[in-house]
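Take a look at this chain, tokens included, and explain the fold to me:
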Amino acid sequence: MPYFDAASAAPLHPVARQALLAALDEGWADPARLYREGRRARLLLDAAREAAAEAVGCRPDELVFTSSGTTAVHAGIAGALSGRRRVGRHLALSAVEHSSVLHSAAAHEAAGGSVTEVPVERSGAVDPAVFGGALRADTALACLQSANHEVGTEQPVAEVAALCAEAGVPLLVDAAQSLGWGPVPAGWSLLTASAHKWGGPAGVGLLAVRKGTRFSPQGPAGERESGRAPGFENLPAIVAAAASLRAVRDEAAAESVRLRALVGRIRSVVAERVPDVEVVGDPERRLPHLVTFSCLYVDGETLLHELDRREFSVSSGSSCTSSTLTPSHVLKAMGVLSEGNVRVSLPPGTAAADVDRFLEVLPGVVAEVRERLGAPAAPRPTPPSPGPAASLVVDALGRRCPIPVIELAKVIGEVAVGATVTVLADDEAARLDIPAWCEMRGQEYVGEEPADRGSAYAVRRLA
């Protein structure tokens, strides 16, 4: 069964498995002890730290191992903000950061700090000048991911890092998605990553803090990992994480070229074979293995289940696959279609034949789901019938994506050119998907107003 969700968790690399099994036999003792078994464990820990530091591009004594990438993010942000509390309590970050960064920002704001979310362009990347404009005299820390976890867009880290350095603000880079493919551009002050993203075992994160960066670890003090990651080290997993990071980096040059070509094929073929689809993210400045697209008039959860039935494991940022029924904050920040969203992230070694079969299966699955939902079979609107309505109201209250958009598409042809259709909806996804539909269909999105329940979204027919 083809597994196309490496951005969530990459399959365990063979080198990681070998290193893990070996370390279970050799690295079970306490590396802080001076007897023979402890010294042997310490040698393994030191070697793993050196290997990881080499891949990150920092000194071994600048890097600690944490229990996860999320823990590394939380510890890094909290420590940096505390270390620079005399400067101020302002935090700047992009609007498309991983949820771990957003949760840290929310906690900081709840504690009395201030946060600026820098908007992104439709490609998902920040404009360095806009990011630089968000830096203030009281900015204690800036955060910018190296590449986006949902759409694959690479961020201008080097340019933003230069602006941060000029402003005297440390930059934390979440490199979880990119570290397995290559080093992060220089200029960062703190860096975080997660081993299960590159084929290491789950439960190992990295936190690197450059010398000279003010940093005050938060929470109860610990004696291990420079006091920045309390608790007994999971040495076998750490050894496996470092070994697999070195292995995937050795393979990255050749594999990235191969996967980039496969992803390029997905980007072009999906747009050709699937009607009413939006391929999102930067087409050039992107991770080599990840592509995301959204299909109009499709229930994302149903689409993923149907693909799973046909033995394809993919994921989504669609609101319909979330228990909160809210749109992906990444897609929302980009202003792109969220319904029917599919993220394909290919693990190293993915066969071209599996990609070809996915591209053969996908159009039929999308058509089947659309038919089941009663979506328009052909692009709308059609020419209006005699005596077209001056305006219409569509009541889609209590109905989830993509039904409000489907109902809009069905009736837009019934109003005169220049007239409006108002959609009443209480699904949060409508706030994103109705404007996106208008852009795809060449209609005018007039705006949103509060309604007795939910919101009223007005659309003017232009053609």
In short: Confidence is low (pLDDT under 50) at residues 319-324. The radius of gyration is 24 Å. The longest strand covers residues 415-425. The chain is about 40% helix and 15% strand.
